[in-house]
Amino acid sequence: MLIDIHGHISTDTPATRVATYAGVANIDYVLISNRDAARVGDDARDWDEATANSATLAAAREHQRLRPLYWLRPGQVDSNIHAIAGALASEPFAGAQLAPAEVGVALSDGVLGAYLDTLALVEKPLAICIGNDNLTIPDDAYELARSHPRVPIVLCGCNASTERRNEMADVVRWTSQRNDADLYLDTSHATAPGIAAIVSAVGAERVLFGTNALSYDDTHLPRHIALIDELRATLSPADAETVLSQNAARIFGNPQSEGR
Fold it and tell me: Are 128 and 153 in contact (CB under 8 A)?
């Protein structure tokens, strides 16, 4: 099995494009959230939370290779903790997605506590987009994870610099050493040697395959597809299986075992 945990749909990136990528790359599942709910940025469409996440559910129902993540808009009037809990408990969302730079909330903002409490209650993980901005400081992600140790949190590189990715790896390594949070790192925008170095530093059990491949134009897709074979050649068979599928299935659930 092969699972890519980092994908997005939007008006500019329709679900059919993501599903086509998954099929061509022979990826069983791509986890998707809806960037039309972003409220910050030149291309932000600021869809309300319910509308955006309903569209994500519809996309996943239409395309079997797509699995939905619930896009969070903390602090907005359209974002209701009780509605989120109900949606995550009753709909096939694999977890939640937080993109601080796109919704204008810092990882250090106290408003996030109630959201993490809700995820702990419904036993769902959280994926966080980490960039080079001051809203997504990896140390703040660590503190958030440490204060909510029951919530698996995956740090996803969103065009993060090498320095920022090193900071992300550092906090995941601290987590592994101290065993005080449930924190992970995805592989987005990294090369096979870079991913091998991350696995060596933090352990394969803390790394999940994610590409954010559709943030590039289609001419870049062959490189992402080739990366899968490169990883299988670079990592040990056990580590490759752990990174490419087992961790994602454990954290986000395996639809095959859930009878999808």
Answer: yes
DSSP string, 133-145: STTS-HHHHHHHH
* Exposed/middle/buried for residue 256 (C-beta within 10 Å: 0-12, 13-18, 19+): exposed
For the chain, 260 residues long, give each residue's pLDDT as a single digit of tens: 999 999 999 999 999 999 999 999 999 999 999 999 999 988 899 999 999 999 999 999 999 999 999 999 999 999 999 999 999 999 999 999 999 999 999 999 999 999 999 999 999 999 999 999 999 999 999 999 999 999 999 999 998 999 999 999 999 999 989 999 999 999 998 999 999 999 999 999 999 999 998 887 777 778 888 999 999 999 999 999 999 999 999 999 987 666 55
* Domains, in order of start, for the chain: 3-252 (3.20.20.140)
Residue 206 identity? R
